[in-house]
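Practice problem: predict the structure.
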Amino acid sequence: MALVIAGERSGVGKTTVTLALLSSLSRKSGKVQSFKVGPDYIDPMFHTAVTGNPCRNLDPVLTSEEYVQECFFSHIQSADYALIEGVMGLFDGASGKNDFASTAHIARLLELPVLLVLDCSRLSRSVAAIAKGYISFDPRVKIAGLVLNKVGSNRHLQLLQDALNPLEIPILGVLRREDNITIPDRHLGLVPTEELNQMDILIDRLGELGDRSFDWAVLLDWLRVEGKEFFVNAKGAKEDAKVRKGFLGRFIATSHSPLPSRHSPFPIKIAVARDRAFSFYYQDNLDILQDLGAELVFWSPLSDSRLPADVCGLYFGGGFPEVFAPKLAENIEARSSVRQAILQGIPTYAECGGLMYLCEKIIDFEDKSWLMVGIFPTTAVMGKRLTLGYRQATVLQESPILSVGARVWGHEFHRSHLTVMPKNTLFEIQGYEDRKQDIIGREGWTINQVHASYLHLHWGATPEIPNRFLKLCQEFR
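Answer:
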């Protein structure tokens, strides 16, 4: 079994509740595996920092329903406890018109119960009406219990309990208003874990909060993983979950020519930029590259003077290059090393922050200009406007990872724009439910074996992407 942590809406404190549960669980014996619904990068970083195990994203838009099931059941095989943090409100889906890709959708897909978090800071008796609505809205979703967050006093708690008693729904957690647990945020959400100097203290405080705030006698039974031997896949067939059928097998099967093992004397080495400026990576993408034979070599454009030796591919994830633009600009040797490698034709994959790094300049929120790698003749300018949402992208130009005419699902999340767009853009972009004629833009660059775009991609449902990229890297080597 496992639990899905849901909120009645965004901002009710489900991330704090989730982290308190994970911190407290991690103090007990056993491995804790966490998951996050949706495309978010930063919440999973906190999960990983707390449990010591990589958090996995469950997103049926970026991947598929089948992949969500396979990902979940394969990763709980070695776990003792499992927990999923939801996204937005329980029934809020990707389009707003239905609940596809919502927390409720994932709970139904995995047949898991929900722990519902309620923000009680401005509620007393009305809390019962809200709870009753969520319990009855979709009978297919089982609400295992409630967590009352931001409770002001003992009298406030008594009022809430009296109102909820007739519903006969368990109250499995009560969190008071906490002043000593704060996670700073910035323009794209929470500040990533690598930038927090007192992360250990925060985890300890969350663990103490978790220890005293939940009914562990009940919750441990819900969170404990049992019956791991089998699961029912999206086609209704029972499969042996100990063998990762389909999950990684699909990627290996699509390789028409064998790729060398990462233990080979001549492995495919991929330089992955990973530091405070570049930290947005789906763990599944990294795992897929390794399982296909790549050796990932992590390096820092902030502090390393040059690319790692003997690499034959570059991977730049998203992050906050605008926050660290002065230090990135100062590291002339690293910028020169990247530029030289790209001009020599090294296959390169860059998302969002990676795209910005490969531009000529970044202009930050204070209107200061900073030199970057200079591969693309354009400048990334930070602004107030947030670009956010799922996108269906049609490929217009051949790139190192995709062929013309291919369609992929991605996610945009940024506050920058480019001053100049290429004459021949990489993608034609549509919104989540737009009709074919509703083109909302074109974007992306592909030159010198570079694929660079604002779109974040999860490769779970597109095995051709990592296969194609690694084959080009192999040829380059």
